Amino acid sequence: MMKVVILAGGLGTRLRPYTFFVPKPMLPLGEKPLLEHVILLLKQQGFDDIVITVSYLKKVIEDYFSDGKELGVKIQYAESLRPMGTAGQLKTAEKFVEESFLLLYGDSLVDTDFRKLVQYHREKKGIATILLMPYRETLRYGFIESDSEGRLLEWREKPAVEGWINVGCYVMEKKFMNYIPDNVMFGMDEAFRDASRKGEQIFTFKAEGDFIDIGDKKSYREAYERYLKKLGKIK
Question: What angle do CA 19, 84, 49 make, to 5 degrees?
Fold first, then answer.
């Protein structure tokens, strides 16, 4: 089974003050930090060789997981001395990967079958594959359309927006690292645009499943409520 890289080095500024003393991936979801849920899900599917990129409050993560032995996995750490953006964090793990690898963001829990994503990537033989999941959001306000004279044409009350979104899960070839500069703040979207402009084959994989994101206070609260509701169904 291929190696996994988990990005866990962000500052978590939108979750302050929660993240003043705890890095975002270590915020609790039930009795465990979110990052532990991610690692346990990976282990269930046979992914047990993990690299975690760390920076902000890295000791909290390293002291909690150590080498991963207690969870039945192997964990190594790639460190940056300052925030580097998502792609910049990934670049710090370059020396730990030798070929294809699975990439996840440490502040979200993607509950799907990663093995199907890996199989699809290998069949397509591209440089990277992005996992997509369906998403639907009902807007808070009604949309009004009018003509050039100001006459009402249509009133759409709280319309829904839906489509396929990037949930921060990829399979990549090590060659993808060539599109990320060293020691520079660099976003994943920038790396993908650069690779695409150079003619690299990039694919998307549409998956069913569920994902929990804790990007800000509102989404963290919603994620916690969804987790507790899901826990109730299991019981």
Answer: 80
In this structure, what DSSP letter does residue 92 have? Answer: T
Q: Pairing state of beta strands 3-7 and 101-105?
A: parallel
Q: What is the CATH number of domain 3-135+166-234?
A: 3.90.550.10
**Bigger pLDDT: 185 or 220?**
185
Q: Which residues contact 4 (CB under 8 A, 6 or more apart)?
A: 42, 47, 49, 50, 51, 101, 102, 103, 104
What are the boundaries of each domain within the chain? 3-135+166-234
User: Looking at the chain, how many residues does it have?
Assistant: 235
At how many degrees (to 10) do helices 58-65 and 34-44 cross?
40
pLDDT at 233 over 60: no
Is residue 22 classed as helix, strand or coil in its secondary structure? coil
Distance between CA atoms of 167 and 160, rounded to whole angstroms?
A: 19
For 3-54, write each residue's pLDDT tens digit: 999 998 766 566 666 556 678 888 877 788 889 999 999 999 999 999 999 9
Task: List CB contacts of 16: < 8 A, sequence separation 6 or more.
Answer: none
Q: Are 72 and 51 in contact (CB under 8 A)?
A: no
pTM of the model: 0.84
- Return d(Cα 165, Cα 185) in angstroms, integer: 24
